[in-house]
Amino acid sequence: MRQFLILPALLLAACAPPPPPVEPEVVVSTCDPAGYDEFIGQNEEIFARSTFPAPMRIIRPGQALTMDFNPERLNFTLDDSGTIVQVYCG
């Protein structure tokens, strides 16, 4: 007898409208890499003498990186000689 009650319930569930689409979250970043363009061309020794906002990471050639995107994170890319070649958020 129970199997006769399950079939109509499954059919009704199949007819239910799909849930509304989830709107993507709008991410507002306060990271401003343009304010750090003055560091491009300087040696990495500048990191010991300066204060930077968190989160921040220094990316060296060949270094493994996580692929997570953090719009608040300030990234400094270095070349083989330890010179800052790029500053960006992400």
UniProtKB/TrEMBL annotation:
This is Peptidase inhibitor I78 family protein. InterPro entries: Prot_inh_I78 (IPR021719). It comes from the Bacteria. It comes from Pontivivens nitratireducens. Pfam families: Inhibitor_I78. PROSITE patterns: PROKAR_LIPOPROTEIN.
